[in-house]
Amino acid sequence: MTELLQLALPPDLLSQIDMATLKLEPDSYLDDSGGRHYADLAATVEIRNVEFSLYILFEHKSYPDSFAHLQILNYMVQTWLRDSREAKSSRAGLPLRPVLPILFYHGPEREIPERFSEAMFSPELSSEILRYQPDFAVSVFNLSTLPDDSIAGPLDLQAALFAMKYARRDFSLLLRELNRLAQSGGVLLIHNPRFKLIELYLLHAAGLTQDELKQKIEQEVTDPVLQEDFMSTAQMLKMEGRQEGRQEGRQEGRLEEIRKVARNLEGTMSLEEIARVVELPVEELCSLLEDQAD
């Protein structure tokens, strides 16, 4: 997460954060409807000896949506309500803990407003009306418009960012970039557990048949170790069940695929991480696994 913040935050703000105080929060703050379109990550961190809530909202819809800012506002309000209850019970009083919101976007290419008012209200509203509406700035990390040569950091982070940027938009380009990273990092990258997560994500998100995956991997991946690893992972996912045009039994086949992937990953990562790989809310993933157990 530290490397991601170094890419996402402006330098003047980043220089004020004490990364040694960074602590991830175990809970998700998304409601049932938001969980279908977003993933969120919460943490606390100190800035100049003041504790902040740090909230990252990952938006990965396949179509443009401006309500991410509203989801962020919801998190901020829920955080402050919780803090106020704790303050009342302990008689600690104010002030509330500040919240630093970050919107991480990697959907279709588009510009994203930084201010809540610009994203949520009509530009025709007068300043006299807008002054009575809530407003705040969101630190936007727009991966869709970020130049490829600006993607930096550890190789597994670069691989993750390229996967999120191109898994649905340009799978061939993605494979070439991962091949380049693999040639730089060798087996240390390919056998990294985080890289296995990236493989699972991109092969699942690509929406290609088994034959299409095999063809693209053979065309674009020249590193023999990476090619073999991709082939074995693609086989495990049984992506042929995702062929376009398959009708009867298609949904159940996809759910069965997700169950198998989740079972293979159990014990190596948390349910929250698995849910992000298969792009399901944690509640739905748990329900799938429980149905199988029954």
Automatic annotation (TrEMBL):
Residues 3-184 form the Transposase (putative) YhgA-like domain. Coiled coil: none annotated. Transmembrane segments: none annotated. GO terms for molecular function: double-stranded DNA endonuclease activity. GO terms for biological process: DNA recombination. It comes from Spirochaeta africana (strain ATCC 700263 / DSM 8902 / Z-7692). InterPro entries: Rpn/YhgA-like_nuclease, Transposase_31. This is Transposase (putative) YhgA-like domain-containing protein.
